[in-house]
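Researcher: Structure for this, please.
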Amino acid sequence: MVSYTFRNSLGKNTAATLDTLKGLGIRDMEFSSLFGKTAADLRKLLDERGIKCSSFGVGYADALNKTQEVGQNAKALGASFVRVAWVPHTGPFTLEMAEKTVADFNKIGKRLKEEFGLTFCYHNHGYEFEKHEDGTLMDYIIQKTDPKYVSFELDMLWAFFPGQDPAALIEKYPDRFKLVHMKDLKKGVQGNMSGGTPVENDVALGTGQLDIPTILRAAKKSSIEHFYIEDESPSYAKQVPQTIAYLKSLTY
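Model: Predicted structure, token format:
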């Protein structure tokens, strides 16, 4: 589970929300906020409920400029991964932006690996799939980053939204993706390269446009280690149990 799904309630009452998540059977989480607590205090709340934080999400600037603090917090949380989900940019994503991204990611990943034993991951957000040569700028980022230091988190919605096939992307790079966000897109919604869509367009898995079983079959054959449910919609309290029931019903 991605903490962002329960961001509002985690911010108001972290302990009670973690009790709810435990009741849903959630045992593995990715946090992108400490919700006003220290990493050690949040870790204590998680440990008390048998929930693990396996990935810690931070902003691009913090990953680059506060790498030491980020690494320390990730280790205190018990995470193995540090993730960035957005490259700050204005207008269409360009080759020049991708080149800077590659250089920064290699630098961040090297420090996190060598100083903390952590794996750095980048989470795609849609805008990186601008055409480049015979592929996309996402291909460029994957191919130019050092696999010793940089891995990836596939957000299946943000691969599908700009017109990509999430399963094919996993199959193309079976050793580079370590984490996945499981999300579905409301039927009838047209995608684009913006990296944004109204949160109401997040729907329960299996009720939208994505071919979830095919994506998960590809993921199971890859190097992906953690599967996180993410639902940004205001209907998450209703949709998350639907998603969990759907995932339990799958045979593949």
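Researcher: Any notable elements?
Model: The chain has a mean pLDDT of 98. Residues 131 and 137 are 6 Å apart (CA to CA).
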